[in-house]
Amino acid sequence: MDLREFACKFRLKTIRDGCGDVIIPGRNGQIYEWGSRSFGCLVMAKSVRYWNATRKKLIDAGFRVIQNGAAEGTVLFNPQDGGQVGLAMKAIGPKRKRVVTESQKAILVKRLGNSLQGGLR
Prior knowledge:
This protein is of the alpha+beta class. It has helices spanning 3-9, 48-60, 82-92, 102-119, and strands spanning 15-16, 22-26, 29-34, 38-44, 64-68, 72-77.
């Protein structure tokens, strides 16, 4: 599974970073491809305490720490392991893509039509 398939499966936003690599951004870090079978998770914590607590949970779940800074670090995880995926997403806080139902879609189209009519006077 590559990163785009992973993002599509979990309704996550992807962007390209400064190097042109595809990443999944989050409030506290990012997820990226690491080799052919694992993903990297960069956790940029708000505090040392958050990173230490998060790192302990990730290690207990089978993540492998490859960088350990004062308030940030990088861990590797298996994208096929549901438990690891959930913890990685909780650690970085990614934005999920909204799923719009047909009734919500109709309401949004109606609102757009009303706003366009009001603005074209």
